[in-house]
Fold each of these.
Amino acid sequence: MALIVQKFGGTSVADAERIHRAARRAIAAKEAGNQVCVVVSAMGHTTDELIDLAKKVCSYAGCESNPPKRELDQLLATGEQVTIALMAMAIHAQGHEAISFTGGQIGLVTDNAFSKARIQSINKQRILEQLSGGKIVIIAGFQGVTPEGDFTTLGRGGSNATLVAIGAILECDCCENYTDVDGIYTADPRIVKGARKIDQISYDEMLELSGLGASVLQTRAVEFAKKYNVKIHVRNSQNDNQGTWIVAETPNMEHIVVSGAALKKDLVRVTIKGVPDRPGIAATIFGTIADANIMVDDIIQNVMDDNTANISFTVEHGDLADIKPVVERMAKDLGGGTKATYHSDLAKVSVVGVGMRTHTGVAQRMFKALSDAKVNIQNITTSEIKISCIIDKEQANKALQVVHDAFELEKAK
Ligand code: ADP
Ligand code: ASP
Ligand code: MG
């Protein structure tokens, strides 16, 4: 008997009809002879709406504060709890047995990094008991509990991480990630004309694409999948088309130089000017930022004539409220001449492909496409399998389209 873990994202459970449709899929998998676990997200835009509500309360009538992270997680975890109960009811209504669990009820324990918590352990016993009793097990995505029992959340898109973690711990045969598009495309199909669905993609390429803005799968989920060799099938919850398989790299993947392009909007450049130019400073700065659990990217350091340096890096706009106090405190500690500035409205356009390891000319082709479209490149970063350019947010969609066109990603290779 095979074991399948399915995950339904927000749009796939947005109303009663869609919840029933998702329930039918879970039942079909069960009737085909499998044991079935289902991970669900909050309905529709619930998470966004709860975040807006929290912000509204925290800035009500002249108040000015950010929602305390513990309380925000307490609030956001309610979104997925609604869906698990409704999904179990829908399965019952269709004449089958199901049981729902929150993260805490299956002992999904995380660290206490509220809003970005990392999974530490899951107690699979309760899930296995219910599966062997013939029930479909419904699990709340995106949430866990600290060892003390406080609710945590796993970062936006965190139900993907729940899916893969459950898949890994149960040693499932397949993780099915049901979403609102047919699979992984060569670029976001909502932005790029001619974006093409990919049949299969390697973990490493997907890891880069996710990290560079392809929000269809959360980066941590792909990390887990690679580490524990969990196969993910990303597919549309509204049709039966084959989607995209995310799998270990095969030799013939190297023939494809560029597999996809991605876009990250809403980046902010933080520049710290007048930093004393002496060994250990960069380690102190980035160590402090890492301790605050904030990811930075695109680091540039320029050394000036007066023995000081300017250090700049980008962060996601959503992290600005967290990083500002950290940077301001550091600037103060470094002495009078050190000052921080913040430049918003940046974006990053990237191309990814394992074939870049063995082919040249990719960077030149990307830069030419951007220059022909009059898009100014502000910074470039590369890895073995990706090239990224920081650009103005205003030109972001155009940049993604011209880069996609330049590599003819719309054509099957
Ligand atoms: P879910 O609620 O099912 O988790 P998400 O909205 O988180 O869905 O992710 C699906 C969305 O990801 C798609 O609607 C699409 O706009 C976006 N997306 C970005 N890049 C890609 C890509 N390369 N392939 C497919 N979808 C992408
Ligand atoms: N509901 C959460 C979010 O919107 C988690 C998820 O959907 O994966 O980010
Ligand atoms: Mg998602």
Amino acid sequence: MEDHRLRSMLRALRSVVGEEHVLVDPDVVASHVVDWTGGFVGSSPAVVRPGSTDEVAEVVAACRRDRIALVPQGGNTGLVGGGVPLAGEVVLSTSRLAGITEVDADAGQLTAGAGETLAAVQRAAAGAGWRYGVDLAARDSATIGGTVATNAGGLRVLRHGTTRHQLLGVEAVLGTGDVVSRLGGLVKDNTGYDLAGLLCGSEGTLGVVTRVRLALVPAPGPTVTSLIGLATVADAVSLVGHLRRAVPTLEAAELVLADGARLVAEQTGVVPVLDPVPPVQVAVEAVGPPDPTDALAAALEAHPGVLDVAVATDAARAVALWHVREAHTEAIARLGVPRKYDVTVPSPRLARFVEQVPDLIRAVDPDAQVWIFGHLGDGNLHVNVTTPSGPGPPRTGPLRTGRAGVARDAVADAVLGRVVADGGSVSAEHGIGTAKRSWLVRDRSAGDVAGMRAIKAALDPDGILNPNVLL
Ligand code: FAD
Ligand code: MLT
Ligand code: ZN
């Protein structure tokens, strides 16, 4: 950006949010320009931290006037390069849009600022005698605004659905500068377009979410957590179908393979719960009332193919059982920058996909190490690829260039091409971001994409919000 344009932009931003909330010190800006994986590294002239919806609206208006692009950023735990400025955009941090501003214990609802962490929302819900239905391992850093912007899934979609299913309303500033606000928590409200539903999963491309109204689910009663060892993924798919029928309060069914379990043990120093490590493990959790322990035990007894079982009925032991699943992301990241593919595969094709994908990947990248885990109950697999020789240079721009880009494309073709051929989705829960932008047109129809472009043009006519994400 030319000097005079930069100076004028910084003046405008400072006049809205105050000098101390326009960060330009390169050491401070640095943490906002690299993503959680380290695979996407950009640059930015400034990080602006508005403290209210009105300030967000003024920031958007100033940027619109001067055609300056913005990247909304919450906890920066996104995994598809959508929350970092890869083309020199200004970062709009939601860190000051925090606070749980209203809890309605009778209705089982709360209102939270976009910058509040998921864990803080979970605590506020528990404090009111309820529970928030979304949970994921990045809970202490991911913001509630980020989870809405990505329609985050996580560990309990099987029972409670994705973030969109909890969302009763949002307050947001659109790319036009208009403020939309519907936080009354009306369960039934058919007055026109569902703007909250539209903004949910829009990845910061249509508006900046500033506050959200969430529905809560009943507080947990007796809970049973179990790690189940099996011989094959086909056995695991069949077991999960059986458990869903036999244990109606089942809310998590997560897949772990032997390589991943051993990696987690190596990288974290925690001894595996199931030893010897079985070829396949499924981590399940059922949450009463009523107490699901006997129903789970009976269902496991009745199912052939179960090799080993560990059970926890208290919270500390449950954490130990969950470790092998939840620590995958961290353990893989310790090997270097992974290529991450987050896909849904239709249930009848899932076992064959898990069996065949490693060979498809190694056919184009013989050194690749392939790690597969994920949310088996939702058909959502995480296929992660690392290379012993290191990851190659990080992605520094919105377009793919150079040798690393070519290798990446061949692996993406192998994994995502297969997903599309199988009738799955190239993004189950992380979003399209910049990472999978070229895949949107291969997954969605021309009509779908045209509809999305029309919405983008209407709500962000100057293309200033996350211009390199999604479309
Ligand atoms: P960011 O990373 O800051 O941003 C993500 C996207 O949302 C960007 O496009 C950004 O521009 C946009 N955005 C952020 N805030 C706003 C806002 N207020 N208004 C408009 N746009 C905004 N994801 C899952 O779905 N399920 C999982 O199980 C899961 N597990 C994870 C485990 C680990 C260890 C890690 C590191 C990540 C995991 N994720 C998971 C991914 C990530 O946590 C989610 O995508 C989360 O929703 C991102 O929230 P954030 O606040 O960090 O958003
Ligand atoms: C998970 O389910 O653990 C996450 O989505 C994170 C990941 O894919 O690494
Ligand atoms: Zn996940």
Amino acid sequence: MATKTFDAVVIGAGPGGYVAAIRLAQLGKKVGLVEKESLGGVCLNWGCIPSKALIAAANLVEDVRGAAERGILAESPRVDVAKLREFKNGVVKKLVGGVGQLEKGNGVEVVKGTARFTGPTSIEVSGGAEPLRLEAPAFILATGAKSIEIPGFAFDGKDVWSAREAVDLPEVPKRLVVIGGGIIGLELGTVYAKLGSQVTFLEALPQILTGIDPEAVRLVQKGLRQRGATVHVGAKAKGYERKGGALVVSAEVDGKPLAVECDKILVAVGMRPTVEGLGLEAAGVKVGPKGFVEVDAQYRTNVPSIFAIGDISGGPLLAHKASKEGEIAAEVIAGHKSARDWVAMPGAIFCDPEVSAVGLSEEGARKAGYEPITGKFAFAALGRAIAMDHTEGFVKVVGDKASKLLLGVTICGPEASDLIAEAALALEMGAYLEDVALTVHAHPTLSEAFMEACKAALGEAIHALNRPERPRKDAVKA
Ligand code: NAD
């Protein structure tokens, strides 16, 4: 078996691993990047990116359906599933190609195949052009996570889909049951509802999107209802059987049986770290009780030569978190004093309306020992949102009553996933409510809602009445 030697080897080329490899190369290291499937990992190939291509297309269908209200007369839209799939695949191909160019341009050697540790400073790679032994004084594990399978719903890619099959858009089923009212279930369930499926969500907990602002959840649920979807909470899916041409999912809702007929089932009940087959035992890497690899603030495992970043090391399973961690681990390997030091880790859910958040919620602020004050601004009172005919939702800010420090922001509404970036910057820079309130925001833009919400928290909103003790009747910002 041939042996290659590197300064550092990254295992897994998702948004954590491919970024780590680039950063290592920038810092002058000779880098190997091992990937068994496709550059970009789940995010680019079967997750964030293709799902966003589908979401954008599904939004277009919906916009066309509602266009007549704005005086645009279009035929009622039909979906060419094969063409839409082709578009989505094209988006993926472009980005995967881009990552390949970046790795090459930075001098990273991409090694195709499956890695397995043979010791703390060596791996074997199989399944590629030839079996290889790679040696390096530093390794970064970035193998991500995969969908959890639950009893009674083995993924078969035919009747029971994981997110990966659902994103591939094999068809638009007439009736779809989504098991799990978490982020993936909501994002993909919304896509299929917009494309024409009748969607039923089964969520085991008392609310969908656990941990998200309840007011935002109410709006998301209202949006689902308007699209003909049904949401059952407190609903534990038990199993399914084929009856005639249909599938019948059985569930227990608050102790009572429920049967839902459908044509396909999407199971999205969480992810588990991809650790099997990596030979972690051979390297001596410690795995925690939930299967995630344990790391310190510099992403070093218990084995000094091995780092772990992204989903495999736990925390919120977010692509941008993985990328950030990849940069930090690369810098540590290159001898820098980097460590986990961020204040703001934004999250965005691409349902309808979109929901995003960063920092502390009001309850979280209280738990952290602050006396919180809040300010809210409704998109229904914002000129740009009204002009776009997307007025659902709000921006809500949380601040510290004593110091007026900005502590957290939740956005529910149009472009919430983009708008959260300003809030993340404000938190990272240690902004006070006043800093945002005094910053001139271009008019007419959706971003004005953040400024107005900060003003509202200070009792100085211009386009809403400042009566915090009573329900506010928002005026319209022309
Ligand atoms: P999740 O943890 O967000 O939600 C899973 C849901 O399934 C939970 O609400 C849980 O109560 C429910 N559930 C579990 N077992 C059930 C059962 N038997 N019957 C009914 N409901 C059941 O997990 P996910 O949606 O699969 O997403 C996986 C991970 O990927 C998450 O950590 C998420 O943060 C991440 N992700 C993030 C984004 C984004 O940031 N936009 C997008 C996709 C995925």
Amino acid sequence: MKFNNMTIYQIYPKSFQDTDGDGVGDLEGIRKRLSYLEKLGVDCLWITPFFLFHQYDNGYDVDDYCAVNPDFGTMEIFENLVKEAKEHKMSIMLDMVFNHTSVFHEWFQKALAGDKYYQDFYYFRKGKEEGPPTNWVSKFGGNAWEYVEKLDLYYLHLFHKNQADLNWHNPNVRNELKKVIEFWIDKGVKGFRFDVINLIGKPKGEFQDDFEGDGRRFYTDGPYVNDFLKELVRDTRLAEMITVGEMSSTSPEACIQYTNPEEGELNMVFSFHHLKVDYPDGAKWKLMEPDIEKLENIFTKWQVKLQDGGGWSAWFWNNHDQPRAISRFGDDETYHNRSGKMLANVVHFLRGTPYIYQGEEIGMTNGDFRNIDDFNDVESTNYYKILQEEGHTSQEALHIIKERSRDNGRTPVQWNGEKNAGFTTGEPWVKVNDNYKDINAENALKNSDSLFYHYQKLIRLRKEYPVISEGTYIPLPLEAKNIFAHRRKEGDTELLAIHNFSKEPTELAFSDEIKELFSDSKPLLSNVERRTFKEKILLEPYESTIFIKE
Ligand code: GLC
């Protein structure tokens, strides 16, 4: 399937739209908003898990991959949603959480009951004298092994202790997962997002301690992952689908391997390095301002390497695991509209497929959480404790959690200025942001200069100009700090993209080569008024302008 000129929209159903008043979004809510999404113009809706689960990780702890959680609706509603989405010219992509199941999954329950066949579905290991089999650290904090007294064995959980890692070396596991894919393709699904899929190639046999890190080097992009993916594609209809892999702590080289079409693995990958430029020395739970120079270097490196190696990226600022980019990299008050448009342009003019996360198109900001009880996410509540154990006061810990919590991206979508922002008539499961009276979809639709219409235009332009969806990426290193610029080229058409990440006006002078190339160019898109190409430009705060030469 052709995916270069597509734009994909991510829905976190729990926070999207509630229709039955229980405070939790549902599938019917997505159906209700299909016209809105069609108006935006997106091609495909990635819906995060709504399968049967226990809520330890909001759906990423799956009890049954082929059943709809009653909190979200029924299989019939899902089938109608697929049909109606198609009428609105959109397809559906589902989220496959195949690195682990919940401990409430039938397979794990049987394993616990002593069934050896199912014990081999997971990584059960003997402990060492002094404790767990290895010192690996779970991504949500603490040791990555949980002891089961009855069996006198530990099982591996790279995430929450209720998310047990699946043993992909067992062909029975792989065959069960293939059936899941086929099941959903039969329901009319056209794409799949694979959760933390580069963690499935773990070592065979005994695992080793990691004395240099948290264990990730032993299982990230492991030696078996590519064969596992190839087999999954070979034995299912995945090759006809849109596929994207979520890659944790990966490298451009690994991502070329995953996505080069000759390899027959995936269409594209999410990587996260560009969202760690405000982590001091990679530490998520410490704060700093984003390092824009580092951000530019990461974009350049990934663009050039993947292009040279025939790979393809999925690009995004926001998802259900990230604080809102407009609060992080933009200015969500003084320059709300302009910095939102700048960030949108950055992602949509990179070489790759852009993803929009619900609410991004109206500039939703970080949540306004006041105290720890306002948070719901397991990672946030775990780290609130860990930070205090490490010596932070409760206030300091709360401050860090407010900036970093995944709940920032999970506050209910702000549809209008009515009670609970039109999300629910009941009590919302997580606090609605107080700024909903200003920032909401209804207001956005009334204002022709809104972010919503900017995104609509970006999606349309991607389809009209092959240079955006397919053009070669050419880096443009500049002296000016906080400016990210590059070129794109396709045949005789060339783009010059300039984005100012700063609150300050910044002067930009072009080289003779650029002056000559773009002297008769015109702006294709800009978030400031009356911009024309000159050899010296005084960029406005958060300006983003794309010049085109045809
Ligand atoms: C992915 C999901 C995240 C989840 C984790 C474990 O990173 O996006 O929400 O907690 O995997 O499944």
